Amino acid sequence: MSIAAYIKVIGRGKEGARSLGVGESRDLFEQVLDHKVTDLEIGAFCLAMRIKGESTEELDGFVQASHARCLDLSAAAAAAPKGIVVLPSYNGARKLPNLTALLATELARQGLGVLVHGPARDPGRVTTAQVFEAAGMPLVNNADALAAAWRSGQAAFMNMADLCPPMDKLLAVRWTIGLRTPAHSVAKLLDPFAARPPSGVKSIRVVNHTHPEYAIAMAAFLQHVQANAMLMRGTEGEPVADARRQPKCDVFLSGTRVDELCLAPEEGVLTSLPELPASHSAADTANYIAAILSGQQAMPSAIQAQANALVQALARIAAPAAGMGAGLPA
Question: 159-212: per-residue pLDDT in tens?
């Protein structure tokens, strides 16, 4: 098979290229994920999309193809009766401590099932997987292990190599061409429970961005697919609030932005800073999380506010008859 016809459409530069429809995009991405095309075609596709940027319909098709190849985790959902939060973690820490594991732990303490997915390692960065490992938190590779972690009241991390092996291989193309690819955008949108929603169980994903144009593109996608999600500017690209300053967090339920659940960004000059780890290493970050859990240090208010907003959003999803906010579809 060949994707040359698709590359001809998307590869004419930022001004000359046009976008594909949902069906075309899914077909294209299925061929790429299943490696039914040559490495040269995959590289051409990645570079063409990097220059053009993904449309809403293209993201929809790409995510559909990826969800269809994700490990079926629906059997674990019964272990999370209050709902599930999915935290895609794909950037890691470069300068600041990676506190995605802290957010995950706080959500688990409030009774939610939390799945963090991402890479195990990233050269030059501290991944969430490394923080989980240093903190002795569960690293799982199947639905049974995930359910066991949730039953014990813990958040769990799953390597993308286990969750969706074809996507993991496509993410690795970055190390060959030297640039992030569409796989990175798609991975940040994956919620395997939204793809196979178990009866009576609801999930919400945290989608983060690092550049303003991606905030617009991601919001359009979440509205288009009627997703339950929190959209925010990530801390160095991680799906956790900056411990130093509350970022803007927009909450979407069934694709509709719910004003009363959104968090406004903190403005002005900071008058105080929370105490943070001595370094951004996995060991120091794990020790910092342990100190917060033991009450020796205070939870950063921005992370607490993010966790509370996610808990409230899931409660709203799980109990629609209890009264929904203005503008939220019934």
Answer: 999 999 999 999 999 999 998 899 999 999 999 998 766 566 799 999 999 888
Whole-structure pTM value? 0.93
CB contact at 8 A, 232 and 204: no
Distance, first Cα to last Cα, the chain: 44
What does DSSP say about strands 84-88 and 203-209: parallel, antiparallel, or unpaired? parallel
> What integer is the mean pLDDT of 19-36?
97
- Percentage of the chain beyond pLDDT 70 is 92
Instruction: Name the phi and psi angles at 122, rounded to 5.
Output: -150, 115
For the chain, give the mean pLDDT: 92
Largest CA distance in the chain: 60
Phi–psi pair at 140, nearest 5 degrees:
-120, 160
Q: What's the CA gap between 279 and 281, in Å, rounded?
A: 6
73, two tokens: 């985790």
Tell me whether strands 156-159 and 84-88 are parallel, antiparallel or unpaired.
Answer: unpaired
Q: Which residues of 216-253 are buried (b: 16+ CB within 10 A; e: fewer)?
A: ebbbebbbebebbbbbbbbbbbbbbbbbbbbbebbbbb
Distance CA 170, CA 45 (A): 11
219: Cα separation from own chain's centroid? 14
Q: Show the domains of the chain with their CATH numbers.
A: 4-67 (1.20.970.10), 76-322 (3.40.1030.10)
What is the per-residue burial (b if ≥16 Cβ within 10 Å, else e) of 147-163?
Answer: bbbbeeebbbbbbbebb
